[in-house]
Structure formats: C-alpha cells, structure tokens
Amino acid sequence: MHVTAGHLRGRKVPVPNVQGLRPTPSKVRQALFNILCDIEGWQMLDLFAGSGLMSIEGISRNIKQATSIEQNKLAIRNMHTIKQQFNTDAWRILPGTLPQALVHVRDSFFDLVFADPPYDKGIAACIPGWLDQYNIRCHYLVIEEASRASPDWPDNWQLEQSRRYGESNLHFLVPVDPSSAENP
C-alpha cells in the first residue's frame, strides 16, 4: 500500500499479515480526503487503526495530530516502525480494545474521527454512542462499513451522506447538538 497524496505521497506503507486486517483501499482514502477538502491543522482520531494507513494519509495531508487506537500487538509494532521510518511526531499510537481504550482520549475534541471496525458485527452503529459515553466531541465521524450493511444511527447523530466504493460504504455523521462539534 502507498500514501496517495501530500508530502509523503508514494511512500510505501507496510501492512502486517494480521487476520481480519483490511487496509482501506487507495480509492476510498482519496475519496474521503477529497470530500473533507482542507484538513490542515486538524486533529484526527483513528479507531480500529489496523495498519495506520488512514492516520499516515492524514499526516501526509498536514493534519496537526493523528491518534490511532488498535488492539493487535503486531499491528501496533508495525505502526511504531512506520512512525519511526517516516520521522513524524504528529502520530500518537495507543494500544487497547474499543470502547475501553477511549478512556485515554476522554473529554477530547477531534475534527475528524475515522473508524473502520470489523464488518458485519454490528459495531459501526455503536461507535457514536461510545463517543458520547466518553465525551469525545468531533466535527465529523466517518465510519467505513460493508456496503451490504445498514446501520441504525443514534438519534443524536445525523447521517449527512453515505458513499459506496465497491464493497465498502463511508458513512459521514455529524452530532445533532452543535455544541458537541465545538472545540472548547
């Protein structure tokens, strides 16, 4: 896999051989960041980070800070290796199982929360509630899920759009309460 844009464009990102790991395809990564447009200076939270590829894409496009949460030890070691190879201080890598690991970012604000949970497990629909539970505020919550799935989102989150890319959908959600999307 390669970084698709920004100052790290073309750099190869090694992907560990971990069962169930599905790095987001380049077409989907490009589409996501094209939809969001100018993300320079943003704070990003990457849930179910896997290879860390989405965080690296954000860093390459000049986000201020990416925070990745992942439970697989091999994937975490791989992310630390990438961080060192790419010589970036803009990446915070947190080990842990979701939702419990969100305690490390409790009461935080992120411009973008991206989540790529295991497909077809019903996890996607839980993520907005997890953010609420840990008082994590954001402008955008983007969840990648299987295109065949139809998650039911909580009433306090509004689905702005869903985009299909082959077997994947990107669901763009925003909090209904505008104060939930403000950086204190």
Can you describe what's shown?
- The protein has 184 residues and is of the alpha/beta class.
- It has a single domain (26-181), classed as Vaccinia Virus protein VP39 (Rossmann fold), CATH 3.40.50.
- The protein is 21% helix and 27% strand.
- The chain has four helices and seven strands.
- The chain has helices at residues 26-36, 53-60, 73-85, 127-133, and strands spanning 43-47, 65-70, 91-95, 109-115, 137-146, 157-165, 168-175.
- The chain has a seven-stranded mixed beta sheet with strand order 3-2-1-4-5-7-6, with helices on both faces.
- α3 (73-85) links the parallel β2 (65-70) and β3.
- The mean pLDDT is 93.
What is the topology?
Layout lengths: L25 H11 L6 E5 L5 H8 L4 E6 L2 H13 L5 E5 L13 E7 L11 H7 L3 E10 L10 E9 L2 E8 L9
CATH class: Alpha Beta
- Oligomeric description of these chains: single chain
Query: How many helical elements?
Result: 4
CATH level-two architecture: 3-Layer(aba) Sandwich
Going by CATH, the homologous superfamily would be Vaccinia Virus protein VP39
With strands numbered from the N-terminus, the spatial order across the biggest sheet is: 3-2-1-4-5-7-6
* CATH topology value: Rossmann fold
Radius of gyration from CA coordinates: 15 Å
Question: How is the main sheet built?
Answer: 7 strands, mixed
Secondary structure: number of strands: 7
Mean pLDDT value: 93
Strand content: 25-35%
- N-to-C order of helices and strands: HEHEHEEHEEE
Using the alpha-carbon principal axes, give the shape: globular
Q: Outline the low-pLDDT stretches.
A: none
Q: Determine the structural class based on helices, strands and strand pairing.
A: alpha/beta
Instruction: Count structural domains.
Output: 1
C-alpha termini separation: 37 Å
